[in-house]
Structure formats: C-alpha cells, structure tokens
C-alpha cells in the first residue's frame, strides 16, 4: 500500500462526506448547486451521489428549471433511512429521543425514574428504548444504535464511568447500563452531549464553549466541531472553576466553586426544588426571588466573561437554567459588557436552542456522526 493510495482514499472519503452533508443540509439541491457546495467537478460528485443513492440515503427528485435551457437534476436526502436513539440518565429522570440522519428530533420523552444500581433499572432502560421504537413504528434494521448520556466523567473508550457525583458511582463499567439493550451503545458525558447537540447542523464546524447550568454545572469545549477532552477527559468541568476564593462549599469538597453559585439548585432550592416555580415567581414580581436572580446573574457574568476571555469564541449557556435565559437573561448581557475588556457588546453569548432534550439528542448524534464518517 502506498502513501498516495491512502491519500486518494482519504480525499474520496472527504468528498463523499462533504456530498452527504451538503445534500442533508437542505430539502432539495440542484446538480450545479451541489457541485459548487462540494467544490468538486460534477463527474466526481455524481459518482458519490450514485453510491449514496444505491445505499438508499439520497434520492433523485425531478429537475430544477435552469437558465441555460437545460434542466438541472435535483437530489434530496432520505432523512429517515437510518435513525438513532438517545438516552439521558440523571439521578431522577430518564430522557429518550429518536433522531433521523439530519439530527432532527422525531420523538422526545422524559420519565421520572430514580437511578438505582440494579438489573431492574437496566431492564427498564431497555424497555424505554424498545417502547420508543415501537411507538414510532420504525423498522429495527434502521436503528444505528443507542447513545447514552451519563452525568459524570467517562474513560476514553466510554467503557467505564470513572466518577459520577449525581449517581454516587466510581469506576463502574458502562455495560451495567446497556446490558439489556439489543443495539450498539455509545456513552458520553452529559454536558459534552449537550454541546454536540448545540453545534449540530451548522454547516461549517465551529469552535465554541458550552456552559451547562443544571443541578450541577458542567460544560464542553468544541474546536472545529469536535470535542476537546483534555488529558483526562475532564476538560469543560467549569463547575469547579474557583469563582470566589474560600467561598461557599461545593459538593466536591472544595470552597468557592462556580457550581456553588450557578447550579440550578441555587435557584430551585428557593421554591421547593421546582425551578419552573422560581421563574413563575419572577414573572409575578416576587422581590426576594428577583434579588436572588440578580445575584445569580452577577456570578454567572463573571463565569461567562472568563470563558470569553479564555477561549475567544461564542459561549452558549444551556442546561436547566439556560432554557429560561431567552426570557430572563437580558440583564446578563449588560453585565457582560461592563466586564469585557475588548468588546462593546455581548453578541458572542448565545442561549441554548434545546432545553431538557439536549443531552439525549447529543448522545444519539454520536451514532449518526459515526455512520457518516464511516460511509
Ligand atoms: Zn467544586
């Protein structure tokens, strides 16, 4: 095998991936548009299109009128040619999604199921997967696999859950979660999964930082659309950045961590553990809750500004609290402008597109992405 042979194969693969991404990023695309998007000659693109059509992933859908007199052929994605399931496991709930090859959410459900380390729990996960597939009436052979999001740190291979405070686990084989699920399973940290979901379907892969404000604070760093894990797969554990030296105690045993100031629990503990009630209180003008919210935002502004200064890219804020920022987060923008050394606005701050479904969706996308990469 020669080096140039391998290079040719790489180029062919890159072209094929570009072709499928281009077709899947729109409902219908003409031959010249597709050649321009893939940035290759039509005969080369056509070869890929033919192969993708033979696999049932792309279909020809008539013609476009073209100014040159000749009609241009048109192609469309077969989005449901393959599907993937995503599960999000938390201490108290299991979320489940079914997504198509474009990463569109076909179904989402979330059930209250307390985590316990048992066979009964693992069987229940398998039943949720089975139920989802049956409900949607999708043929089993279309399912690429099940992505499972876990609230903790995993090893590189996804075979061991190294540490999960939320589930009270250390060094547990992930097979404990998947043993009754009759599909290929992949595992991912919850905040990393949510970050992947947020960058999905952007045509050109970007760099961004995702800050997740749920019952614990986590995050993800994505460079060029790919996750940056760090030496120990702990990159993006922003919850344990020191925010206030010797400040409030954190669940990790240290003091002053961001988690102690910006987790969703900081707010929900003021309204009987119910975060939605906290924001209902803000809507109805509860002064004490408003004071708590202002304080929360002032700490969040420090955290977000630090991320902007460190990474110089968009910062997406998501998680349970992120879902309420479109309505209640405007004051955060002003606080960010005040802190920013270089910029007069906070347009780099984005509120997450997804709410509770982000992590399950991101986990399912692992299978979609692997499928596309291995075409
Ligand atoms: Zn901590």
Quick overview:
With 375 residues, the protein is of the alpha/beta class.
Overview of this structure, please?
The chain has 3 domains: 3-77, Winged helix-like DNA-binding domain superfamily/Winged helix DNA-binding domain (Arc Repressor Mutant, subunit A); 82-197 and 358-373, ATPase, nucleotide binding domain (Nucleotidyltransferase, domain 5, 2-Layer Sandwich), CATH 3.30.420.40; 203-351, Nucleotidyltransferase, domain 5, CATH 3.30.420. Helices cover 41% and strands 23% of the residues. It has a 5-stranded mixed sheet, with helices on both faces. The two termini are 21 Å apart. It has helices spanning 3-24, 31-38, 42-54, 119-136, 175-178, 190-199, 259-262, 264-268, 275-283, 287-311, 319-322, 325-328, 330-339, 358-373, and strands at 29-30, 58-64, 72-77, 83-89, 93-100, 105-112, 143-150, 153-154, 160-164, 169-173, 185-189, 208-213, 217-223, 226-227, 314-318, 349-351. The radius of gyration is 23 Å and the shape is globular. 38% of the residues are buried. The chain is of the alpha/beta class and 375 residues long. Strand 9 (160-164) and strand 10 form a beta hairpin. The model has no long low-confidence stretch (mean pLDDT 93). Zinc ion binds at residues 240, 250, 252, 254, 257, 259.
């Amino acid at each position: 095998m020669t080096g140039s042979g391998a290079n040719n194969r790489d180029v062919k693969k890159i072209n094929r991936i570009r072709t499928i991404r281009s077709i899947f990023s729109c409902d219908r695309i003409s031959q010249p548009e597709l050649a321009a998007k893939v940035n290759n000659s039509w005969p080369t693109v056509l070869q890929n299109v033919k192969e993708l059509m033979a696999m049932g992933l792309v279909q020809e859908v008539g013609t476009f009128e073209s100014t040159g007199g000749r009609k241009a052929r048109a192609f469309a994605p077969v989005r449901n040619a393959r599907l993937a399931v995503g599960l999000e496991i938390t201490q108290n709930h299991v979320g489940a999604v079914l997504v198509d090859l474009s990463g569109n959410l076909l179904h989402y459900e979330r059930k209250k199921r307390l985590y316990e380390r048992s066979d009964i729990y693992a069987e229940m996960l398998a039943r949720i997967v089975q139920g989802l597939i049956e409900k949607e009436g999708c043929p089993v052979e279309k399912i690429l696999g099940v992505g499972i999001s876990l609230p903790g740190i995993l090893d590189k291979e996804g075979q061991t859950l190294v540490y999960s405070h939320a589930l009270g686990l250390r060094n547990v084989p992930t097979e404990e979660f998947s043993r009754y699920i009759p599909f290929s399973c992949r595992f991912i940290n919850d905040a990393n999964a949510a970050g992947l979901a947020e960058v999905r379907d952007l045509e050109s892969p970007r760099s961004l930082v995702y800050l997740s404000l749920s019952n614990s604070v986590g995050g993800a760093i994505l460079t060029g659309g790919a996750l940056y894990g760090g030496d120990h797969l702990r990159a993006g554990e922003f919850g344990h950045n020191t925010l206030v030296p010797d400040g409030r105690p954190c669940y990790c045993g240290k003091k002053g961590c961001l988690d102690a100031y910006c987790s969703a629990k900081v707010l929900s503990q003021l309204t009987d553990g119910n975060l939605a009630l906290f924001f209902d209180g803000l809507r109805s003008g509860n002064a004490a809750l408003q004071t708590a919210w202002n304080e929360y935002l002032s700490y969040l502004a420090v955290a977000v500004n630090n991320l902007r200064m460190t990474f110089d890219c968009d910062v997406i804020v998501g998680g349970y609290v992120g879902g309420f920022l479109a309505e209640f987060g405007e004051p955060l923008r002003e606080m960010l402008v005040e802190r920013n050394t270089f910029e007069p606005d906070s347009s780099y701050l984005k509120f997450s597109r997804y709410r509770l479904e982000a992590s399950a969706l991101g986990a399912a996308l692992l299978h979609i992405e692997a499928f596309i990469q291995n075409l």
